[in-house]
Design brief:
This protein has 212 residues and is mainly alpha-helical. It has helices at 8-18, 24-35, 39-51, 78-114, 118-144, 151-183, 190-197; strands at 55-60, 63-68. Among the domains are: 3-72, Orthogonal Bundle (Arc Repressor Mutant, subunit A), CATH 1.10.10.10; 152-197. It is built from seven helices and two strands, in the order αααββαααα. The chain has a two-stranded antiparallel sheet with strand order 1-2. A hairpin with a 2-residue loop joins strand 1 and strand 2 (63-68). It is elongated and about 120 Å long. It starts with 7 loop residues before the first helix and ends in a 15-residue tail after the last helix. It comes from Seriola dumerili. Residues 81-145 form a coiled coil.
Length: 212
């Protein structure tokens, strides 16, 4: 396509090939992406082709429609039209069948792509077997241990812990009350008093009384 004809030859060939009516906007949309034609250039080229008689132009309201000059095509009789209609129907049916086949093949391809290969499957099986072996070894170790704690012993430990925590809280509260009572008549700070009498608090030892 030369720059001189501004796409006119391309548009003429397109309209003759398709042999159906188009607006300038239709032709621009159909050819712009592949051939990079501008809309203004398309409009001017089609007006020029119509002016030269190479294509036909019809006006419907404010819109102009362009189509190939039918005089260049040979006449088609009824038998030929029926044959073409049959061929079109066959091609439509074939296209639908191919579309369906493509969809099925695409679905199969996606399923295969999401599946593991034989090598990946074998690798995963080896990893799972190794993991199972580790779990079996841990289970056997637990079963063979002689220092199991019975439910009764466990319950006893928890009960004793509850008693000790309760006593801890009680003594902490009593100690705090006594210290606060002494501090009412003590001229120095609480920290200085604790240092003087040698008292270490839970906070000094970085421990916290359990909530229960």
């Amino acid at each position: 396509m030369s720059k001189k004809d501004n796409g006119a030859s391309l548009i003429l060939a397109y309209l003759n090939e398709k042999n159906r009516p188009y607006s300038a906007q239709d032709v621009f949309c159909n050819l712009q992406k592949q051939h990079g034609l501008g809309k203004t250039a398309v409009v001017k080229a089609m007006e020029l082709l119509a002016l030269e008689g190479k294509i036909k132009e019809k006006t419907y309201g404010k819109q102009k429609i362009y189509f190939a000059d039918q005089a260049q095509f040979k006449d088609v009789n009824d038998a030929d039209l029926k044959a073409m209609d049959c061929q079109i129907s066959e091609l439509i049916a074939e296209a639908q069948s191919l579309t369906q086949s493509c969809r099925q093949l695409d679905a199969e391809l996606k399923e295969l792509n999401s599946s593991l290969t034989t090598e990946e499957m074998m690798s995963e099986i080896r990893e799972l077997k190794a993991e199972c072996s580790e779990y079996r070894a841990r289970l056997e170790k637990i079963k063979s241990a002689t220092n199991h704690v019975t439910p009764e012993e466990k319950e006893k430990v928890y009960k004793e812990r509850t008693v000790y925590v309760k006593e801890w809280k009680k003594r902490k509260r009593l100690a705090s009350d006594m210290i606060n009572a002494i501090l009412e008549g003590y001229p120095k700070s609480k920290k200085e008093f604790l240092d003087e009498v040698g008292v270490e608090t839970d906070e000094d030892c970085k421990v916290v009384v359990p909530s229960n």
